[in-house]
Amino acid sequence: MKDNVFSARRFMNVLRKEIAVNGRTLLLLALGLYMGLTIVMTFGNMMFSHSFEIPVTLLANVVVYCIAAFVFSIMASMAFSGLKTRGSRVDLLMMPATALEKVLVQALVYGVAGVLVFLLCAQLADLTRIGLMNLLIPTAEIPGPINFLAFPYNYAFGVSNYDARISFGTMLTMALAASMATYFMGAVLMPRYTWLKMMVVMQAVDIVIFVVLILCGRWMNATWIHYITDVNHVDGIGWFFTVLAIVQAVVCAVLAYVFFKRKDVVTRSVL
Amino acid sequence: MIEIKNLQFGYSRKGAPLFSDFSLSLSAGQVVGLLGKNGAGKSTLIYLMAGLLTPDAGQVTMHGVDVRRRLPSTLADVFVVPEEFELPSMSLNRYVAVNAPFYPRFSMEALKSYLDIFEMDGAMPLKSMSMGQRKKSFICFALASGTSLLLLDEPTNGLDIPSKSQFRKAIAQSMTDERTIVVSTHQVRDIDTLLDHVVIVDRSQVLLDAGVREIGQRLTFGSEVVPDALYVQSTPLGPVTVSPNLSGLETPIDMELLFNAALTQPARMKELFTRK
Amino acid sequence: MDFKENKAIYLQIADNIGDRILSGELPADGKIPSVREMAAEIEVNPNTVARTYEYLQQQGVIYTRRGLGYFVAADAAQIEVRERRNALMQGELDYFLGRLKAVGISPGELKALYEDYLK
Question: Which of B52, B54, B102 sits opposite A13 (nearest CB)?
């Protein structure tokens, strides 16, 4: 057996094991997600069926984004469930694969796949909404199906791009990625925390980082801080936050890997 | 095969470390008994040998490779059966299908023979098994994995008497010249006939590190109370003793007596085994 | 097997095999279990069984055929009897005779008792 850092065969074995062991839970979650989204969307449709158009579409977007942020963060914090108990920790750490392969499988299943599953559930929920509305209140205004599967593209690259102004959507997508990466890192650092505790801790960490950066900029009297805080350069703030989000996402992802490599079966007092 | 060199390890930064300048060397083709009182650090030593804990100082190597690096080649050659373990909700057969690909020397044939010895049904779901059955299933997989090093932490805990007998049969059958099995236990009588080598630890000291043959040559176990006996224990059938072997005749080793003798007379034990 | 005697375990195993040869359970030129099989059967370390087989081979009680395993020698039974005779003469017999003398049993009495027993 070669000891290269990444082996496709080993990666597939780790992935197969993760799905075999946790697949049932993930399926149930997906089911719960689908049902939850269906209920939310149907109710939303019922309540606003007489005044749809732009507000409704915007509301749908906002609601979906909030749910997405919530759900994605929870999913990311579900990664590394193998670190929770001593018995499963022995199993995870002794699995014959590199740390990189193990971390990538977690990122794939609880990050990327989670997002895709969410979009799929949202799409199906929306179609179900239309079906239910037609069944229950056929006379109501039923907006056509929202194309959820196009959301990532629309969000990430926006409608009006290719000028200095960074699209709101891009900023939000990067923020989402940063949040997920932070919860992912949290899952490695604090495996026994419930997601609620982790959310509080991670948000606190985020706020601290944000405040420190602003204060640093102010103290250094850097030109960029004037650029972004100047109201006339609204796009400046957009770029600032987007870059910050990307940096946070990358740093947290790397730290997740580093912290995982350092993990022992028993956590000792100091990191 | 396994070299522990000048190991230092403690769970808390303050206070005395559990192991200090601890060294031990284990060869291939042996069943090693790791004996010690509860809390003496047997489980810790097992974790350190598997690379599951990071030493504060010193190194643990297997075939010359630092086990803490957790290289896939090392991990595929070591299997740990901890005292507490978790098995997922699936049948044993499915568990094997998911995990065997990680172990290049895994043998389905060997697995079947161990399942036969333990009278286990591979199709049965793991979660609906009793604790003892789950342990036996895990041990079957561990033995069939074909790893050079097998670390078992209190494997007979939770096994009924017939199961302990099956365990001994399985271990005897699984031994090869390239394999080393380390069994840590405080229930010595469960495995005494299986051991090639005995390591007794207490308070981070190695009280005894000797092969079974050497022990039989240097110590006598019997019922005669001699003046320079190391240890005497009263039993309903009379006293049983451990004393230096002056006749050269080998007697069967009473592991429990050996253990007690090592704990109560560490200095004498050390002296007896460093002579010649 | 219960290893309750005070002899080294590998010797106790040798005795057990000897018993089985003398009783006819293991016939001359018949195959005996491999080291591993025997070890699993009696739940003992294979190295101990290997030591037993080496000992029995030295005595000429068993022999190996390359690739096929261990076999009972043609004259194994005779060798066993001879070895046990020697062991008895050199060990227990002295002790036994001493006990007889201590309770005052005469040679004549001993002969009669033994003849009675053999019937």
Answer: B102
Contact status, residue C16 vs residue B261, Cβ threshold 8 Å:
no
How many CB pairs (< 8 A) connect A and B?
A: 81
Rounded average pLDDT over B203-210:
85
Query: Hey, where are the domains in chain B?
Result: 2-203, 210-274
Tell me which chain C residues have a C-beta less than 8 angstroms from the C-beta of B156.
none
- Superfamily of the domain at B2-203: P-loop containing nucleotide triphosphate hydrolases (3.40.50.300)
How wide is the angle at C-alpha B215 spanned by C-alphas B214 and B219, nearest 5°?
A: 125
Chain B residues with beta carbon closer than 8 angstroms to that of A264: 47, 52-54
Report residue A109's pLDDT band, with 50, 70 and 90 as the boundaries.
very high
* Cβ neighbour number for residue A148 with a 10 Å cutoff: 20
In percent, the amount of chain A with pLDDT more than 90 equals 21
Q: Do A10 and B72 touch (CB under 8 A)?
A: yes
| Residue A159 pLDDT greater than 70, yes or no | no
For the stretch B126-139, pLDDT in tens is 999 999 999 999 99
- The Cα–Cα gap between A206 and A184 comes to 14
- List, for residues C3-34, the tens digit of each pLDDT value: 667 888 999 999 999 999 999 899 999 999 99
| Interface predicted TM-score (ipTM) of this complex, two decimals | 0.91
User: Going by beta carbons, is chain A in contact with chain B, meaning 3 or more pairs sit under 8 Å apart?
Assistant: yes
Residue C85 per-residue DSSP state: H
Q: Does B52 touch chain A (CB under 8 A)?
A: yes
Count the helices and strands in chain B (H runs, E runs). Answer: 9, 13
Whether the predicted pLDDT of B267 surpasses 70: yes
* Domains and their CATH numbers in chain C: 9-77 (1.10.10.10)
Of B13, B50, B101, nearest to A94 by CB-CB distance is: B50
